[in-house]
Write a structure and sequence with these properties.
The complex is a heterodimer. Chain A is of the alpha+beta class. Chain A is built from 20 helices and 10 strands. In chain A, about 65% of the residues lie in helices and about 10% in strands. In chain A, helix 7 (about 120-145) packs across helix 8 (about 165-195) and helix 9 (about 200-230) runs antiparallel to helix 19 (about 620-640). The longest helix of chain A is centred in the middle third of the chain and has 33 residues, at about 345-380. Chain B is an all-alpha fold. The chains are: A alpha+beta, B mainly alpha.
């Protein structure tokens, strides 16, 4: 009954989406304001219908209704409640429902908070959003319906893949989808602007917060996924350049480029058609990612979601969304004139360099990911493109980006001067040089990797700090004046500096852990002491412990440093009975300066010895800390006064006597 | 979508033990070389995993083969050539720099040059009529003002 209610709600949402994609569009073309306005209630009603559908599916999982096929295939009555709920999106059908729910959420947010949008733009953007929603809802209804019943219902379910029974599943996919799907908003705005033939500073001001929101979530989603793999897959790798990872990384790179180029449109009224193109690309890459993951084209050895009908359906959506978007672009974009003129050495020039490096880096990832497919189509030969290729061909662009970033960040608009910019950030260069030289001098192996990487990270971080110091007149004015200036800096500028520092932190973490990680692999007896990376790790033994739906062998290790207790580590080997599958839970002691990471392998000699892998991973957490700081920077920037247009308007309505409630920050 | 990846990665590779203690060579220099080479070789039955990361039995066979060749005195290049001879180019995670892969290897630098040149031409273009002063047009400034002041 509840499942049928959910099924019915999906059908209603589909009908509403079709209405939303046509009526407001016709209204906008004909100038009928009543028709245009229909987009708003349609978007909100669609969200409500999908909330009902999602709640119905969640309910079926929670009560373990095994007559619902998806529940029977992916859940089990013994599974802990957290994973019953998270299991809703731990499968193809449920994750598609989450996808459209988030799509509808974004549409409804524009409908609800876009009161100050020009009616035509709002109607068209909502219509495009409705089209995307209708396409995905059709996909769900015809190929991936989560509400199909099973008769007769099995007595118990098949359980969720044990690797997914992890808190990571609860948070990683929702963030990732908020990012992927959030990019549909800038796509919809771009298509609406192309139909209208009008892109201006105001347009950029509406698009940028949506891109920023999507990018923040994508950053968090990717970082969570990377961290999850780091602790779950059991050898502490955090990035594998796998096609599925690349599928999420490409939209991230393009949305990062987009949120920089939208600044140029907003402030300087140029780069308009480029920004539109990036908006189309960003969401197209999200769709391509969906295609890669769910069609089985690239992941051909696997059967998770490689249903050919689904692949063809998504391919059709790809062709319409990307082909249609680009055709519209080719037709309408030449009419957009770039207006703001600037010299190559300027803030605009710096942002163009940022865009160039990010998009070329993305193109390299794209070509590398699809190269095996292309080669096979061209001459039938089979090649592999893996981490060694990407490390070599992607990293140089990030190095160039990191070198250029502090310069671009302090450059003035229109016309800058390299010498003047250099004087502002010289101190950062000096610190970076000292750090690099010191590390190189102290290193035993004279490898240049860590010193260069960490010097680069210092350059980016201290460059951002130097920018803040410069703008607050640190050392040139009184302390009070400096603090006053810092407080009055626009939030967007704070966001910029914070996000750039986060980028530096991530470079630091990657460089440090790649260069300084130490590893020990051995067979250990109880009482053995493993010396690794300056720690003595004693193997205290293994005991068997039953879990809710698995049995575990839990090892105990004591880590000492210079005779002082540092940590107790409890790596586990689990065996999940329903799926007949073993998993490993690494024993990790996390810290800001290092992670201790111990993995328990198989027993040997009838349990007298155990295979043990121990790692010391210096500064590993800075990789994800950096991503978190980048997201925080985005969030701070999102709260900038100029995006809170609606909020300001409301405040003024309420209190017309205090127009400067949100005081204008001093430029 | 990492969770899909994790399923996929593990559907062939049971967790999670890659290099096993018994495989490790006594000579640390040779072992280091073996580990380096292992990172460049694909586990043929896995999805985009190197034999260094994979616990599939075929990956283990390849790891042992690499070590065997190194112990026999082969250089790194000879070892790789030996394995490519037997398993084909598919085994290389870093595609060889040959005619077929040239486009892939050169795409980054070429795109950078083309993009850079285009951007430079764009930046050197002549000022268009009325906007030498830059910034927003009057009409747009007015519109923006209305918006920010919450008309």
């Amino acid at each position: 009954m509840i499942a049928e209610l959910g099924h019915f709600a999906v059908i209603i949402a589909f009908v509403l989406a079709i209405g939303q994609s046509t009526v407001p569009l016709i209204g906008a073309q004909k100038g009928w304001i009543d028709w245009m306005r229909l987009g708003t209630p349609a978007a909100i009603a669609q969200l409500l219908a999908l909330v009902v559908a999602f709640a119905a599916l969640t309910y079926s999982f929670v009560i373990s209704d095994f007559s619902v096929r998806v529940v029977a295939a992916n859940s089990n009555s013994l599974k802990p409640m957290l994973y019953k709920v998270a299991g809703v999106w731990g499968n193809h059908e449920g994750s598609m429902l989450l996808w459209v729910l988030i799509l509808a959420l974004f549409g409804a947010m524009v409908a609800a908070f876009g009161g100050n949008l020009p009616p035509g733009l709002k109607a068209r953007a909502l219509a495009v959003q409705g089209m995307i929603g209708a396409a995905f809802l059709a996909f769900i209804l015809w190929t991936s319906n989560p509400f199909w019943r099973l008769f007769p219902a099995p007595p118990d379910g098949n359980d969720l893949n044990p690797l997914l029974q992890d808190p990571g599943l609860a948070f990683h996919p929702p963030f990732l989808y908020l990012g992927y799907v959030g990019l549909s908003m800038s796509y919809s705005f771009a298509i609406a602007a192309l139909i209208e033939g009008r892109v201006d500073a105001a347009w950029a001001r509406w698009v940028r917060p949506w891109t920023l929101l999507a990018w923040i979530n994508l950053t968090l989603g990717i970082a969570l996924g990377s961290w999850w793999a780091y602790y779950e897959l059991g050898w502490g790798g955090w990035w594998f350049w796998d096609p599925v990872e690349n599928a999420s990384f490409m939209p991230w790179l393009i949305s990062a480029a987009l949120l920089h180029s939208a600044i140029v449109v907003e402030k300087r009224n140029t780069l308009k058609s480029w920004t539109i193109l990036l908006s189309i690309f960003a969401f197209s890459l999200s769709l391509i990612g969906t295609f890669i993951v769910r069609s089985g084209v690239i992941t051909s050895v696997h059967a998770f979601a490689s249903d050919p009908t689904r692949g063809v359906f998504i391919l059709g959506m790809l062709v319409v969304a990307i082909g249609g978007g680009l055709a519209l672009y080719a037709w309408r974009a030449p009419k957009m004139r770039a207006e703001g003129v600037f010299a190559p050495v300027s803030r605009e020039g710096g942002l163009i360099l940022n865009n160039l490096l990010l998009t070329v880096a993305c193109a390299v990832v794209f070509l590398g990911t699809l190269a095996p497919l292309f080669r096979e189509m061209i001459d039938g030969s089979k090649i592999s493109v893996g981490a060694p290729f990407f490390d070599l061909s992607f990293t140089p662009f990030m190095i160039l980006l990191a070198i250029a970033l502090p310069f671009g960040a302090v450059m003035p608009w229109k016309r800058g001067h390299l010498g003047k910019a250099w004087r502002k950030i010289m101190i950062a260069a000096a610190i970076a040089f000292l750090v690099g030289a010191l590390l190189w001098g102290l290193a035993e192996d004279r490898s240049p990797f860590a010193p260069i990487g960490i010097a680069l990270a210092a350059w980016v971080v201290f460059g951002a700090l130097a920018d803040l110091a410069e703008r607050s007149k640190l050392g040139r004015a009184s302390i009070g004046e400096t603090i006053r200036r810092l407080i009055n800096l626009p939030r967007a500028d704070w966001g910029k500096s914070i996000a750039h520092m986060g980028f530096g932190f991530t470079i630091f973490g990657i460089s440090a852990v790649s260069a300084w990680e130490t590893e020990d692999i051995r067979l250990a007896k109880v009482g053995d002491v493993i010396e690794v990376g300056g720690y003595e790790i004693t193997f205290d033994g293994v005991r068997g412990v039953p879990g809710p739906n698995y049995n575990a062998d839990i090892g105990r290790f004591t880590a000492m440093k210079n005779g002082k207790l540092e940590a107790l580590l409890f790596p586990e080997k689990r065996f999940y009975q329903v799926q007949q599958m073993p998993t490993t839970e690494a024993g990790i002691h996390s810290g800001l300066t290092r992670d201790l990471y111990v993995v328990l392998g198989d027993p040997a000699d009838g349990g007298k010895q155990w295979a043990v892998r121990s790692y010391v991973k210096p500064w590993a957490n800075w990789i994800w800390l950096g991503a978190l700081v980048m997201a925080l920077g985005g969030l701070v920037s999102l709260t900038d006064r100029r995006y809170r247009v609606g909020a300001v308007a409301k405040a003024q309505k309420r209190a017309p006597a205090t127009p400067s409630a949100a005081a204008t920050p001093a430029e | 979508m990492r969770f899909l990846y994790i399923i996929l990665a593990l559907s062939f590779a049971a967790p999670v033990y890659a290099v096993e203690p018994a495989e490790i060579l006594d000579d640390p220099a040779l072992e280091t070389r073996a580990r380096q080479l292992s990172k460049e070789l694909r586990c043929l039955v896995c999805r985009n995993e190197s034999i260094d990361d994979s616990s599939a039995s075929l990956a283990k066979d390849l790891r042992l083969l690499v070590r065997e060749r190194l112990v026999a005195g082969d250089s790194d290049d000879e070892t790789m050539a030996y394995i490519v001879d037997r398993y084909g180019e598919f085994v290389l995670l870093r595609p060889a720099m040959n005619a077929g892969n040239l486009a892939l290897w050169l795409s980054g630098p070429i795109l950078l040059i083309i993009g850079g040149a285009t951007a430079f031409v764009f930046m050197r273009r002549k000022p268009s009529v009325a906007f030498a002063h830059g910034g927003l047009s009057n009409e747009e400034a007015e519109r923006l003002k209305q918006l920010t002041e919450g008309k």
